Amino acid sequence: MSSVHGADEFPEDCLPPERDYPSRDALFASINAWAAPRGYAFTTGRSTKEKSGKQTVTFSCDRAVRPSRPADDPQRRRRRRTTTRGTGCHFSVLAKESLDRTRWSLKHRPGTQSSTHNHAPSRSTAAHPVHRALSSKDQVVIDTLTNVGLKPKEITAYLRQNSTSAASRQDIYNCIAKSRRKAIERASREADHPPSTDTLEREAGVPEINAFVPAGDQEMEQTT
User: Fold this and answer.
1) Sequence-separated (6 or more) residues with CB below 8 Å from residue 106
2) CA dist., res. 134 & res. 152, Å (int)
3) What is the pLDDT of residues 130-188, one digit of tens each?
4) What is the β-pairing status of strands 42-49 and 55-61?
5) Which end of the chain is more exposed for a tag (fewer CB within 10 A), N or C?
6) Which alpha helices (H) appear in the chain, and where do they start and end?
């Protein structure tokens, strides 16, 4: 999925608007939904906690990591692209937890450095791991299709047609491998600790024999 903002500069409304959210996760999902069509992504930065227990979390541009070597360093050029995305970008926002811990507020940081990127916007959301993350629904689909025996290529083709995810083929293959590991671990646990006969009967809906005592037998038991 390509970014709808195709220019070489970020739009004026690059910062997500300040507002309150019912949870930290809801805030994080919202600001990344805002960032995606504008050519960037947020990741979780440092977190601080006050004596009252209230937290403040910094959500930073995912290119905030400073490169370990200069751009013209030959060894850096030989590394994989995924390890050289960092530009030391200071673009970031703050998420502040309320004192009663019932909501999170998105706040802009003071100064222009925190509201300005030091790199060009991405042309595609697939350039950001956060935007490539598979939803819980997609993961359930992958688990189901893996369990019924579909091949990775078939599962990938299905998701391409039925999901809006920007996940790469490798992301999907990694999820399939994780699903297979979980299935093997589950089968191993069941082999080591097989369910009892009573458990199997309950799961199968087999009625308990003692629950069905003929009325005549009940009267005989009471007279004896």
Assistant:
1) 16, 17, 18, 19, 20, 21, 27, 30, 31, 93, 94, 95
2) 15
3) 999 888 899 999 999 998 999 999 999 999 899 888 888 899 999 999 988 988 888 88
4) antiparallel
5) C
6) 24-35, 74-78, 129-132, 136-147, 152-162, 169-192, 197-204, 215-223
Q: What are the φ/ψ torsions at residue 96 (nearest 5 degrees)?
A: -115, 125
- Give the residue among 142, 166, 141 at the shortest CA–CA distance from 32: 166
Judged against a pLDDT cut of 60, whether residue 224 lies above it is answered with no
What does the alpha-carbon distance between residue 76 and residue 5 come to, in Å, rounded to a whole number? 29
* Distance in angstroms (rounded) separating the CA atoms of residues 179 and 145: 10
- Give the integer Cα–Cα distance in Å for 165 and 18: 27
Per-residue pLDDT at 211: 44
Global pTM?
0.66
- Determine contact, residues 142/172, Cβ cutoff 8 Å: yes
Structural domain boundaries in the chain: 20-124, 136-204
Residue 3 in this model has a pLDDT that exceeds 50: no
